């Protein structure tokens, strides 16, 4: 089995202006440095709102920080008359390494389908960034015991058209919607069940190298206090963190899960 570098990504959602963003990234960098965090061992990524990205870029470049950053969404279009949209080329130019696509809030409030998520993932990769492709079931689906087939259908749709080689470098985040921002964390076994099913599906479709390379994150009320148990699971390669990523100490604690 290939060894995969754990990835901790903090999705700030629509929080923090550009000045607050700089303060948080600085504090996170100091906290990690203080704890002698090895960024080669655990990758740390912040995902601020679009309006903060230029400031984060200036700080990261200026101070040669090892923290990486990404965007919360990207347009399916490359350029043109799409008011309010942000293209993958613009994000790449700002130094983004990652782009979250298909977050459940985008799927729910903006009616994003798997086809749209797939188009966004292709845009991100085409511009040299890694898409973090979000999938996961709502409460009704979970109660009906349909969470695995539901999530795998999203994986199939969202990863359509990628080669095995490309899939090996992608990130999928399994985020059960009932566990996002609710304090209701899935058990480590719940996370493992679906993360393993995602990897098995990728193995079936794209082969061993893709399945062994793909990083599968868990997301949903992850905190410093519960991350260790989740990270012990063999098919969980990191976490996509919402609320807890807005506090430097707490997010640093998640990054230092070992
Ligand atoms: C998220 O929004 O991706 C998320 C996992 O949020 P939280 O950690 O707050 O549940």
Automatic annotation (TrEMBL):
Signal peptide annotation: none
Keyword line: Cytoplasm, Gluconeogenesis, Glycolysis, Isomerase
Protein localization: Cytoplasm
Catalytic residues of the enzyme: 103, 175
Entry EC no(s): 5.3.1.1
Main location: cytoplasm
A Pfam family hit: TIM
This protein's name: Triosephosphate isomerase
């Amino acid at each position: 089995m290939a060894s995969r570098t754990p990835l901790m990504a903090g999705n700030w959602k629509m929080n923090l202006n550009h000045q607050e963003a700089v303060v948080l990234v600085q504090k996170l960098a100091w906290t990690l440095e203080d704890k002698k965090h090895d960024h080669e061992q655990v990758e740390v990524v912040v995902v601020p709102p679009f309006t903060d990205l230029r400031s984060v870029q200036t700080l990261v470049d200026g101070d040669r920080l090892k923290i990486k950053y990404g965007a919360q969404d990207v347009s399916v279009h490359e350029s043109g008359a799409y008011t309010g949209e942000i293209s993958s080329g613009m994000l790449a130019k700002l130094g983004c390494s990652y782009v979250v696509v298909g977050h459940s809030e985008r799927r729910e409030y903006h009616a994003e389908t798997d086809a749209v998520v797939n188009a966004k993932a292709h845009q991100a990769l085409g511009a040299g960034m890694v898409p973090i492709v979000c999938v996961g079931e709502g409460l009704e689906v979970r109660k009906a015991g349909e969470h695995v087939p539901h999530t795998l259908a999203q994986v199939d749709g969202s990863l359509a058209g990628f080669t095995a080689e490309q899939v090996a470098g992608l990130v999928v985040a399994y985020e059960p919607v009932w566990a996002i921002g609710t304090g209701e964390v899935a058990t480590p076994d719940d996370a493992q069940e679906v993360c393993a099913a995602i990897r098995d599906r990728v193995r079936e479709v794209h082969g061993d190298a893709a399945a062994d390379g793909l990083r599968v994150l868990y997301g949903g009320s992850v905190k410093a206090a519960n991350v260790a148990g989740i990270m012990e699971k063999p098919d969980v390669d990191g976490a996509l963190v919402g609320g807890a990523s807005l506090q430097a100490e707490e997010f640093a604690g998640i990054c230092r899960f070992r």
